[in-house]
Write a structure and sequence with these properties.
The radius of gyration is 24 Å and the shape is globular. It has a single domain, classed as Fumarate Reductase Cytochrome B subunit (Up-down Bundle). The protein starts with a helix and ends in a 5-residue tail after the last helix. The protein is an all-alpha fold and 242 residues long. The chain is built from eleven helices and no strands.
Length: 242
């Protein structure tokens, strides 16, 4: 039952909470653009950092995505010991930089409490999950070597099974505890994200998307109306009498 929830039900619940949270927050703030801009500035102040913070997070995300999307290439790359050591060492160094940058961000966050209790609690929970995710990833790199290879062999099929809506839970259940913790914290962070200050960026993205769709729909409607007036068959079916 525990395995079923963590690796079968929880990923879908986390994504559902992410989507519902974004939509609800958008509906609550879509008419308050000034308030949304203030939230965006607040989020940049709290979660913004040095260039190393952004670059390390981006590289970590790209690295994980590459392992999931191109497992064959990763295994081929790792067939050479030199390339394998280079990839593993690079990932570990990037993780260390991200963890050090995160420490500075967390220190700055402790001195701020100018938002609602819900936002503050959500920020703390999200930062805690982010710390667990980075720290567990670094521990994996040390305790369970060659994570890129076995990640391509085990984690990629598991994520692919989630996307097919037929999760292969035994793949995740047989992994070490720290690997399962890494997976759980990733999905948990997604579930909490809409409630944090960073959720304002998701709301802004959704607002921009709906705005573009509305403009495109309006333009298409205007074009269709113009064509209908131009090629209206009523003009020659029922011509006006002089």
């Amino acid at each position: 039952m525990k395995t079923y929830f963590l690796f079968f039900a929880w990923p879908y619940m986390a994504v559902a909470l992410l989507l519902v949270g974004i939509i609800v927050r958008y509906l609550l703030t879509r008419t308050q653009l000034d308030g949304l801009r203030a939230e965006l500035m607040d989020a940049r102040t709290v979660f913004g950092g040095k260039r190393a913070w952004y670059i390390s997070l981006l590289l970590l995300a790209l690295g994980h995505g590459f392992v999931l999307l191109f497992p064959g290439f990763i295994l081929s790359w790792n067939s050479s010991p030199v390339r394998l050591y280079l990839l593993e060492f690079s990932g570990f160094i990037i993780g260390l930089v991200a963890l050090a940058s995160f420490g500075k961000l967390l220190w700055r966050h402790t001195g701020r409490s100018n938002r609602s209790v819900l936002i503050e609690i959500s920020d703390v929970v999200f930062l805690s999950l982010l710390f667990l995710g980075i720290a567990s990833g670094l521990y994996l790199a040390v305790a369970y070597r060659w994570a890129s290879s076995w990640g391509a062999l085990i984690l990629t099929p598991y994520i692919a099974s989630l996307l097919r809506f037929n999760p292969t839970t035994q793949l995740a259940a047989e992994m070490p505890f720290v690997v399962r913790l890494h997976l759980f914290t990733t999905f948990a962070a997604l579930a909490v994200l809409p409630l944090t200050r960073l959720g304002a960026f998701l709301v802004q993205g959704l607002h921009f998307f709906f705005e573009r769709v509305a403009r495109l729909t309006g333009a298409m409607g205007a074009t269709a109306g113009e064509r209908l007036r131009k090629y209206n068959p009523a003009a020659w079916l029922w011509p006006e009498e002089d």
